[in-house]
Specification:
The chain is an alpha+beta fold. The protein has a single domain, classed as Beta-lactamase (3-Layer(aba) Sandwich), CATH 3.40.710. The protein is built from 14 helices and 12 strands. The strands form 3 sheets. Strands 1, 2, 3, 8, 9, 10, 11 and 12 form an 8-stranded antiparallel sheet that branches. Strands 4-7 form a two-stranded antiparallel ribbon. A hairpin with a 4-residue loop joins strand 2 and strand 3. The chain is globular and about 60 Å long.
Length: 335
Amino acid sequence: MSDPVLVEITRGGVVESFHHGAVAVMDADGKTVLSLGDIDRPIFPRSAVKAFQALPLIESGAADRFQLTDAEIALACSSHSGEPRHVGGAASMLGKAGLDLHCLECGAHWPMGEKAARALAAEGKMPLTLHNNCSGKHSGFICVAVQEGIDPKGYIAPDHKLMREITGALGDMTGYDLSNTARGVDGCSIPTYAIPLRNIARGFAQFASGQGLGTERVKAAARLRKAVAAEPFMVAGSERFDTVVMEVLRERAFIKTGAEGVYCGALPELGLGIALKIEDGAGRAAETAMAALLVRFLKLTAEKNPVVVARTDHSMKNWNGIEVGRMRAAASLTA
């Protein structure tokens, strides 16, 4: 099956380039609300499923035991920009568990946020594991390990007791046999599994509605959603799409980016889950596609939700500030 064009880039009044992709919008019963392209081809969801991986943080009792704040819980779902609040939040989570950054196995990289990276360099400092965009997720893993009396050393390995628990939550939420699919290594060194968009979207529908989940998981999902809605900055950072959109929509939508053009979302008021994959891995196209889906299903208007609507069709400017073209959602998404 050939994936349709989801996003177009124009210049001089004509389409200069375009991005193909696939989209699945499902309800918790598994009903397909929208299907574009091949939604049954397994793809690596990458960081888009961090909310599923954060469920054990709540269910194990770790979040309560260590009195994690909404900001810290939101950080456990994040791909953050490495700004001071993000770095401080991860350090705080580890400190509450009685450990420090030396137990993190995610690796170190310069902050994703340009301002944060420049500030760190200006101080003559090198990045730490706390600056890794996944340090919040990993700090959450460490909290679970301490809560359950598991030695966290080597926790990134697929067969580590802690990682088996995290993988189990992912498998449960997607309803997909992860033992019988392709497994890769994510950027932060934990395993990532190939899962069809159909399954991922249904998982987010259950995450949104609680339908089909056990009592404790319903509570855990709701707590994660509320924490993210209260602290959207912690999920991404300054001027990042996830943060900007959720600052506006709050509990109406949970959205999360993943590497290589993946985006997922949960719409609690509708009980729907969204999963999309841009074929060429372009993040710019994934953001535009997600914006179009939010506008379409939440019936957002430019008058009341200008920030979100603007992302569906916006100008592209050169270094002199001259508009040279537009990036827009294709008719396949807006029809």
